[in-house]
Design a protein that fits this description.
Helix content: 40-55%
Shape: globular
CATH superfamily: Metal-dependent hydrolases
CATH architecture: Alpha-Beta Barrel
Number of helices: 9
Radius of gyration: 17 Å
Number of domains: 1
Distance between the termini: 15 Å
Largest sheet: 8 strands, parallel
Number of strands: 10
CATH class: Alpha Beta
């Protein structure tokens, strides 16, 4: 199957940070990308994501977020209010979660994440979760708030917890880091293809190269290699997964 015949979804990209956005979106389309979920991190990035999605209907879909790196006491009330007021315009809540390497007190992270999860539950939105060095606590909070749809972004935690995540019906996402990260690779090997989404986390750098949405092809190729499946089968299944998770009928 030719690349342009593949239908791929980049389920996690920070498009507001991309300097060459028009070119990057064009290249993504040429690579077979039929949808990009653009995630926010704070009020300003959420506003930018909404504008980018508005300029690219049917291709870029906004997710409203409050990243743990961006939590500042003075901004919490306003950011939570913005997310609540605009979440209906998005396809998901994200990027949100916990990060125990961030210079933000854990208690504050827990408070903000809990409130965000309550908003997601109220509006029945799926949640895109950042959980660096905090996988267990993030999972517990998602379960406690009765979130039905969640994806654990770039999962690289323990396989024991992964089994619980999968048993709960949640997803994990595959990134180009599969090429070199043993924990991430082990998680994707263990998870059934029905529980995997593809993403790039654009514009993060992988081994010195800054990612763009077209690099979802790298995620695809690595998943296909690890699973012993052909690219077409992985593309079809993961795009169907994204459609199910986000509630979007992605068009070619």
């Amino acid at each position: 199957m030719a690349t342009q015949e593949l239908r791929l979804v980049d389920g996690h990209a920070h498009l507001e940070q991309v300097s060459d956005l028009p070119e990057s979106l064009r290249e993504a389309r040429e690579a077979g990308v039929c949808g990009i979920v653009a995630v926010g991190m704070d009020i300003e990035s959420n506003k930018k994501i909404l504008r980018i999605a508005g300029s690219n209907p049917g291709f870029v879909y906004p997710a409203l977020g409050f990243h743990p790196w961006e939590i500042k006491v003075a901004d919490v009330k306003a950011t939570l209010s913005f997310v609540r007021d605009h979440l209906k315009e998005g396809v998901a809540l994200g990027e949100v979660g916990l990060d125990y390497r961030a210079q933000v007190k854990k208690v504050l992270q827990w408070e903000v994440f809990g409130k965000l999860l309550e908003i997601a539950h109220e509006y029945d939105k799926p949640v895109i979760i950042h959980c660096r060095y905090s996988h267990q606590r993030a999972f517990e909070m998602v379960k406690e708030r009765k979130i039905e749809r969640a994806v654990f972004h770039w999962y690289s935690g323990s396989v024991d917890l992964l089994d619980k995540i999968l048993s709960a019906g949640y997803f994990i996402s595959a990134t180009p880091a599969l090429a070199y990260s043993p924990p991430h690779r082990e998680a994707i090997k263990r998870a059934p293809i029905e529980r995997i989404l593809l993403e790039t986390d654009t514009p993060v750098s992988y081994q010195g190269k800054e990612a763009r949405p077209k690099e979802v092809l790298v995620s695809l190729e690595e998943v296909a290699r690890l699973k012993g499946l052909n690219r077409a089968a992985v593309a079809e299944r993961t795009t169907a997964n994204a459609s199910q998770f986000f509630g979007i009928s992605f068009q070619p």
